[in-house]
Amino acid sequence: MRKVLFVLLILSVLVSLGVAAKVTIWCWDPNFNVAIMQEAAERYKAMHPDVEFEIVSMAKADVEQKLNTILASGVKKGLPEIVLIEDYNAQKYLQSYPGSFADLTKKFNFKEFSPYKVKLMTLNGKVYGVPFDSGVAGWFYRRDYFKEAGIDESELRNITWDKFIELGKIVKEKTGKYMMAGDPYDGGLMRILLQSAGSWYFDKNGKPYIKDNPVLKEAVRLYKEIQDSGISKEVSGWNEWVAAFNNGDVASVITGVWIVGSIKAEKSQSGKWGVLPIPRLNLPGAVNASNLGGSSWYVLEHSENKDVAIDFLREIYAKDVDFYQKILIERGAVGSWIPAQNGPAYREPDPFFGYQRIYLDFTDWMDKIPPVDYGIFTYEADAALMGVMPDVYNGNLTIEKALEMAEKQFLNTIGY
Amino acid sequence: MKIRKSENIWGWVFISLALSGLLLFILYPIIYSLYLSTFSTRGYLKHFVGLGNYKRLFQDSNFLLSLKNIFIIFIIQVPIMLFLALIFAFLLNNPKLKFRGFYRTALFLPAVTSLVAYSVVFKMMFSTQGLVNNILLSLHIIKEPIRWLLDPFWAKVTLIIAMTWRWTGYNMMFYLAGLQNIPLEIYEAAEIDGASKTVQFFKITIPLLKPIILFTTIMSTIGTLQLFDEPMNLAAGVVTGSSVGPGNSLLTPSVYIYNVCFKYVPNFGYASAISYIIVLIAAILAIIQFKVAGDRK
C-alpha cells in the first residue's frame, strides 16, 4: 500500500512539473473587459493548448486596493500576471512602484498603437503596458428630438460649447427635453473639456497648472453656464445617469465611446440615435475630439509566467485583427491597435444609429485626440476642483478666486 | 484565594493562542502604523519626515474639511439619535403596551442590515426623482423636488436621516437593557406622588440611565469619527466620483484615509498619521464626556 502511495506521489510530482503555465488576469467589468479577456484567452488556447488562464473578475476599487496593498508590502507572491489599469492611474502605479511592471518597449511595435495611449504608459522612455480600449469621446444625440426642435443636423457638426448651450435652450423650449444629463460635481466632462484643448491639471513638467490655466478657467465657466442655463438634467450616480437617456429624458449624451452598449440596451430607441463630434472650446488649439476613460493591460515583472503573458498579449492584442472585429461587434470595444481599424466591423453601418458608420467616425476622431500627460495626481486635482464648485455655482466665488483656492487646496493634498 | 503556580501557567497556555493573535493582528499594526506615520510614502518608496506628516495635516484643507463635516454630523445626529432611542426605550418598557415584541423587532431590525446595502437603498430613495421626493410632492409638502444628494446642505441631511434610521434601534437596545434594572416600584411610587410620565422620564429614567447614556454617547462619538460606509456609498459618483458628495460635503476622515491609500497616490505614512489624530480626537472627546457626565465617586 505504501509503495502504491509513493508511486502516486512521484507521478503527481511529474505531472505537476509538466503542467501548463498558468496566466492569472485581474480585471473588473464582466460585460466588457472580463468577457473580452475570456475571448482573447480562448483564442490563445486554440494555438497553445498547454497554457491555462484564470480571469478574475473583481470590482475596480478592489483591483486597485489589492494591487496597492500587495505591491506596497513588497511581497512578490499573490500578484497576477496581467492586470488592467485605468489610464488616469497608469503613471501613478508606474512611479509609485518602480520595477514592479514589465518593460515592454522592445516586445511590441508601439507605432501600431494610438500615440496618446502609448504616451500615458511611457516612463523615462520605456513603455510599460499594452494599450487596450479607447475612451474616444462622442456626442450621442437623438435625431428625432432635434428634428422636433427644428434644428437641422448640419447645424450640429463641429460647433462650440456656447453654441451647444444655445441649442440646448432651444431643445428644452421646443421639446421639453433636457439637452444632457450629469452630476454637477462629476469631473468626467471636465476631463473631456481639458483634453480637447490639449491641457490638463498639470503642465508639461508635471507642475500644478490650475490657477492660471486658461483652458481650466473656460471649462469651469462652461460648467457654471450649463448649470445656470438649466439644459442639464441633474442626476447622482451611474444608474440615474444611464436611466436619463434610456428613458428618453435627454436629447444627447457626451461621453466616451464605451457608453454605446448602455445606449443600445434600450432597444425601443433603435434608429433614433446618431453620433457627432463633440463641441469644442472657444480657444486656440482646441479641437472637436477628446477622450474619457479607457484602460490598458500591464504585466507584473515578478509574476511566475511573465513571458507567457507577454506572448499572449502580443499574439492577440497586437496581431489578431479578427479578435478586434469580434469585440467591437459584441462589446462595443474600440481597441487602440490601429491595424484592427481596417477590419470590416469598423465599416459596418449600424441600424441602431440610423445606419451611421459610427466606428469609422470614432476612429477618425481618435486620431485627433490631443495627447496629454495625465501625471499622477489627477484624482487629487479633481477633488480639489470639485470641492470649490458649490461656491462657483452659487456665485460666492469668482472663477479666478475659486481656481486659486483649488490650487492651494491641491498643493496641500499632495506633497511627499 | 491564591492561585497555584501550575494553574497559573496553564491559564497562560490556554489564552496564549488568543493572546498571540491579539498581539499579532492588533498590537503590532498599532505600533507599526505609529512608526509608519513618521514616513512619507509613495507606493513602496518612503522617506523619513519625523513629525512632518502631523504638521502637514493641519494645513491640509481636505482633512480639516473632513473634520468639520463629521463635527457637524456629530453635533446634530448623535443627540437626535440618542434622544429618540431613549424615548422609544421608555415607551417600549411599559409592560402594558401591546405588540411590544413587534415594535422592538421593528426598531432593532435596521441595526442588523448591512451598512452598504442600506446606504445604497437610501441613495435610491433620496435621489431627485426617488421615492422620498415623490411622496413629499404628492402630499404637497414641497413644490419642487429637493436636491437631496446634489446640494451640500441636503446631502448632510440625507446622511443624518440615514444614520438615525440605522443606529437608533441599536442604541435603544442598550437603554432597554438599562431600564430593566430600574425597579418598577420607583415609578409606582412616583405615580402615587402624582408625577406625570414626562416628569418620570426626566427625573427617574434619565438620571438612573446616566452610565448607559454615557456609554452610548462615547460609542456614538467613536462611530461618527470612523464614519465610512454611508458617505462612501451615498456619494458614489457618475463616471469619476470626483468629490465625496457635492463639494466634498460627505468627506469624512475615514473616507479620506481610504482615498489617500487607494484612490490618490498611495501614501500609507500620511494615512497612518491621520488615523493617529483620529484616535487622539476620540480619546479627548471621551475624556470630556466622562468629565461632564461621569460619576464623581
From TrEMBL, chain B:
It is a multi-pass membrane protein. Residues 67-289 form the ABC transmembrane type-1 domain. Its main location: membrane. Keywords: Cell membrane, Membrane, Transmembrane, Transmembrane helix, Transport. GO terms for biological process: transmembrane transport. Belongs to the binding-protein-dependent transport system permease family. This is Lactose transport system.
